[in-house]
Design goal:
Number of helices: 20
Largest sheet: 5 strands, parallel
Number of domains: 4
Low-confidence stretches: 393-397
CATH superfamily of the largest domain: P-loop containing nucleotide triphosphate hydrolases
Distance between the termini: 70 Å
Strand order of the largest sheet: 2-1-3-4-5
Mean pLDDT: 83
Shape: elongated
CATH architecture of the largest domain: 3-Layer(aba) Sandwich
Number of strands: 14
CATH topology of the largest domain: Rossmann fold
């Protein structure tokens, strides 16, 4: 057992108290003694012990009565009861009353130490969960947004600065990083919180209908337009319109959106008059819009209109410090009142995973774990491991072995660099902005490398 653990030993038998205290001291466990239940309560006011080890049968109040008072005063402190062999019924009663465990007198040294070890682990687990709950309470008070990593704290600070102005915001990040949660937090933290927050996914609606959804239409504007309809811009008037997956919007509609951002007015499909609107635009994308501009798929002028305030959300695998408090928040969301907690080993395993699906993948896994687990704890063995074990193994791959392999193949530094860059690009699904951040280089360097590589491949094809 490790140092720093403490036990309050409660027994009216002085010889027994001294023997147990001496045994614990020999194990490096800080132990104090109390001769009665009343003495124990008094000592607990000054001694913040990890575990209480108490006899059941004592003059005055019994150990079970002491247990009840400790559960009221210090519910996170495990209580282990000692009982004579002939009083097992009392021990069973104590377990029903909330005791952590019991040992029978005369007890074996190793049996007592093992029971206390388990009690220490329980106390540590309770403390960890309490810390996580405090962290969740502190961070989730800022809208629905949760995170304690430096990058998330920077996002929190930026949101506080921009929440009440009307400037357009462009949120970028991989799928599942919580772009809509950031958008909602901006809206509900600012001066427009009392007005509508209207989200629309630009991918989910066919382009032919998206214009009507955004700007509305008049009766008879097209087949099936039997009545006039207000668009989402009018519905969001005074509030916020969230355009998710803006990178998937067609070029034609991009031009009309640009006109609205410039003139602050819309014209319904088939209409002859314009309508003034006061709408804050927050857009989001998982694409690299600068690359989309280079490829001619996104308007440069619209990008600069949207990108007044850029917010980039890092993927979850780059902020493992956020995994425990996110996991705790998702556990509370889906536990439906059940008293379930993570073991430290489970939290450690979650932090080692890559989370290609980001927070959304983490939440889905925890929801599945809750559906499968029967007891009060979720351990690493309770986590659905399909697709998880490979991620854990990949994240812990030995870099020395990889370098030894490169050395055995006599790779040049340039060849090794190319292999690593290709692997990072594959990891980011070709997103050069994210790849450049991981590599610590300018994204223009990646663009130039791609151009050189393409030219070299073309030249090789010509020679063959």
């Amino acid at each position: 057992m490790s140092d720093g653990r403490s036990v309050l030993v409660v027994d009216d038998d002085a010889a027994m108290r001294e023997m147990v205290v001496s045994l614990l001291d020999d194990q490096g466990i800080h132990a104090r003694a109390a001769s009665s239940a009343d003495d124990a309560i008094e000592r607990l006011t000054e001694f913040d012990c990890d575990v209480v080890l108490s006899d059941i049968r004592m003059p005055g109040r019994t150990g079970i009565e002491l247990l009840g008072q400790i559960r009221e005063l210090r519910p996170d402190t495990p209580v282990v009861l000692m009982t004579a062999f002939g009083s097992i019924d009392s021990a069973v009663e104590a377990m029903h009353a909330g005791a952590f465990d019991y040992v029978t007198k005369p007890f074996q040294r190793d049996a007592l130490l093992l029971t206390l070890e388990r009690a220490f682990e329980r106390r540590a687990l309770e403390e960890e969960n309490r810390r996580l709950r405090r962290a969740v309470d502190q961070t989730s008070s800022f809208g629905e947004l949760i995170g304690n990593s430096p990058s998330m704290r920077e996002i929190f600070a930026l949101i506080r600065k921009i929440a009440s102005n009307r400037s357009s915001v462009l949120i970028s990040g991989e799928s599942g990083t919580g772009k809509e949660v950031v958008a909602r937090t901006i809206h509900f933290s600012g001066a427009r919180a009392a007005r509508a927050f209207v989200p629309i996914n630009c991918t989910a609606i066919p382009e032919g209908l998206l214009e009507s959804e955004l700007f509305g239409h008049v009766r008879g504007a097209f087949t099936g337009a039997h009545v006039s309809k207000r668009g989402l811009f009018e519905q969001a008037n005074g509030g916020t319109l969230f355009l998710d997956e803006i990178g998937d919007m067609g070029l034609g509609l991009q031009g009309k959106l640009l006109r609205v951002l410039q003139d602050r007015e819309i014209r319904p499909v088939g209409g002859n008059t314009s309508v003034k609107v006061d709408v804050r635009i927050i857009a989001a994308t998982n694409r690299d819009l600068r690359e989309e501009i280079e490829q001619g798929r996104f308007r440069r002028d619209l990008f600069y209109r949207l990108n007044v305030i850029p917010i980039e959300i890092p993927p979850l695998r780059e902020r493992p410090d956020d995994v425990p408090i996110l996991a705790q928040a998702f556990l509370r969301r889906h536990a439906e009142g059940r008293a379930v907690r993570f073991t430290p080993a489970a939290i450690e395993r979650l932090q080692r995973c890559r989370w290609e699906g980001n927070a959304r993948e983490l939440e889905n896994l925890i929801e599945r774990a809750l559906a499968l687990v029967d007891g009060p704890e979720i351990g690493p063995e309770d986590l659905p491991i399909e697709g998880l074990a490979a991620a854990v193994a990949e994240s812990s791959e030995d870099p020395n072995r990889l370098l030894d392999d490169a050395l055995a193949r006599h790779l040049t530094l340039a060849e090794l660099s190319d292999l690593y860059i290709d692997r990072v690009l594959a990891h980011t699904h070709g997103n050069k902005v994210h790849a450049a951040r991981i590599l610590g280089i300018n994204r223009r360097t990646l663009y130039r490398r791609g151009e050189r590589k393409g030219a070299a491949e073309d030249e090789e094809e010509e020679t063959t």
